[in-house]
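Run: sequence + V47 -> complex structure.
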Amino acid sequence: MFSFIKDKNLYSIAERVFSGERLSFEDGLKLFESNDLTAIGILASYVNEKKNGDKVYFNVNVHITPTNICVGTCKFCAFRKNKGDEGAYELSIDRILDKMRNMNLSGVTEVHIVGGLHPEWGFDYYLEMVKRIKEEFPDVQIKAFTAEEIKYIANRGGKSIKDTLIALKEAGLTSMPGGGGEIFDKDIRKKLCPDKISGKEYLEIHKTAHRLGIKTNATMLFGHVETFAHRVNHLIRLREAQDETGGFQAFIPLAFHPVNTEIGGADYTTGVDEIKTLAVSRLMLDNFYHIKAYWIMLGEKISQMSLFYGVDDLDGTVVEEEITQAAGARAGEYMPKSRLIRLIKEAGKTPVERDSLYNIVRIY
Ligand code: V47
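>> structure
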């Protein structure tokens, strides 16, 4: 049998991984329940190396968060404010452009834009934002708006999801981030974010984007009130959606940060759970090319180590992240490109700078 495996529950899973077979719900559960992290990592690395060789992708990006004022009620969010609250802010489009002018955008290929659901902003604000950014910064790709925001923008404009996405794409939207996935299970969603779009709607919006030629990412918020079964269910539903459209680029497990949130009794996730979640994601999502470690939430050390456990993508230089900072982030909010390259090289991998669509910018 496989001498690297200590947990005998993993034998048949290893056989299936090495013969390229799809893993089942039960397999996913056994993987999460196992503490044989070395074996799980070897399996996840095997799959990753078949897909990506020794390449590890990273990008040079900046974040813009247009507002923290939000009509949403997500209990895990420490970032949202009501209008008039201390610390509430809203950026006009001119302010957003000013902010971008003041950032050093030389070499930046992506602006990542997500924010609150502002009670007064309409369809035109969002469209105009994308248009004016594109006009002034034609070389910066715009990865913007979660599925939740797309639904909100569509509602504000009295338009369908499809027409909203078409308009945003014409205005200059390159791709969509994966935020808002949380955990798809209905009961968990009721506890976490009762007013948010359902898991089914999230997937439908992403699939609509894919059919219009807009690539997207997917996320899963883990480490709060969910069980392993909920995580596996989430991964399988993503895998099924990807079978239909093939439009997901990367999957990003987001480690829950508990500070200032309304999730009682929750704590920070641990290194083992974080690494295991990344590795199991790699094994379950056989039709995704990229598993991304978001170092803002995982820390740079866990993110670097995850490169031995199936991860092939590190996001990113970032600059001015706000959502995790509000919830007790411990990793900082900016990493120079030289540091990302060093993290990847010291893991014995090849750093590949990419743009939002995974076109290669430069290999280091
Ligand atoms: O949707 C909110 C999550 C997401 C907390 O697609 C929290 O490339 C942890 O989706 N603790 C936004 N997480 C971030 C996001 C993202 C980040 C980087 C890259 C990409 C991409 C997407 O952050 C939200 C929510 O799921 N979140 N509060 C918290 N307390």
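>> summary
Residues 76-78, 114, 146, 177-180, 182, 217, 219, 221, 252, 254, 256-257, 261, 294, 297, 315, 323-324, 327 surround V47 (CB under 6 Å). The chain has 15 helices and eleven strands.
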